[in-house]
Amino acid sequence: xxxxxxxxxxxxxxxxxxxxxxxxxxxxxxxxxxxxxxxxxxxxxxxxxxxxxxxxxxxxxxxxxxxxxxxxxxxxxxxxxxxxxxxxxxxxxxxxxxxxxxxxxxxxxxxxxxxxxxxxxxxxxxxxxxxxxxxxxxxxxxxxxxxxxxxxxxxxxxxxxxxxxxxxxxxxxxxxxxxxxxxxxxxxxxxxxxxxxxxxxxxxxxxxxxxxxxxxxxxxxxxxxxxxxxxxxxxxxxxxxxxxxxxxxxxxxxxxxxxxxxxxxxxxxxxxxxxxxxxxxxxxxxxxxxxxxxxxxxxxxxxx
Length: 304
What we know:
Layout: E1 3-10, H1 24-36, E2 42-49, H2 54-63, E3 65-69, H3 74-81, H4 84-87, E4 95-99, E5 103-105, H5 109-119, E6 125-126, E7 158-160, E8 163-167, E9 175-178, H6 179-191, H7 199-207, H8 215-218, H9 230-253, E10 262-266, E11 270-272, H10 284-293
Parallel strand pairs: 1-2, 1-4, 2-3, 6-10
Antiparallel strand pairs: 4-9, 5-11, 6-9, 7-8, 8-10
Helix pairs in contact: 1-2, 7-9
């Protein structure tokens, strides 16, 4: 098995509430360190939507292939990278990891990913950062979320090394998948962004065979600021209702044999660098400091 790492980045910043240690160079350095700790073959492809700062670009060019694209939005660049496994004829036996540019990785994160892929034959998709579990009463039409987080009290969680893997509800757009599964689900994943809102959450429910939207949620998105004229707003609403209705239909029509399983680790092995959303159980500030100063002895340094 070979691991393909596809890292999406953009030069601009947004207005999210970031921790003091946040930077995209730090995120990239942590990913490179995690790849460096692997004992299997790994290929890195960096997909930059527009120009990125020279220091990050240099790090990328030393580590793998760099592709510059002009997509203009997170949705478009996401849909673009989903084509890579098919366009490049990656082996169905391989694993792919899609990475966004604002995640911080622990040194052993991708090693745990490979171990899970090797040992958990039932797992199709993988996340290293999650918390939600399905309730025991969940059904395909009513995917109830359980009250307990991660592997807490889960008798079906599987311990591999120091991590317990449990069935998760959803992931962000930073996730892994078996290439054979990704090839089969490409159409679903590439159309999911058109449902609006938390489309990554919706896509995870859909490929697992759960209805992603309740009847209230199908048309629940308010009119978007900046839309001029009632007709344009109405057209957007109609398109949204159609996309969400189709997503529900596709999810519920999935035969049992095509329903996927998403697994996640407890504790989290990466974190989204946003205040209020940092994964618990790890001193991420200390990890960031060690990585920035080279105190972790990985040999991967950067000028923070």
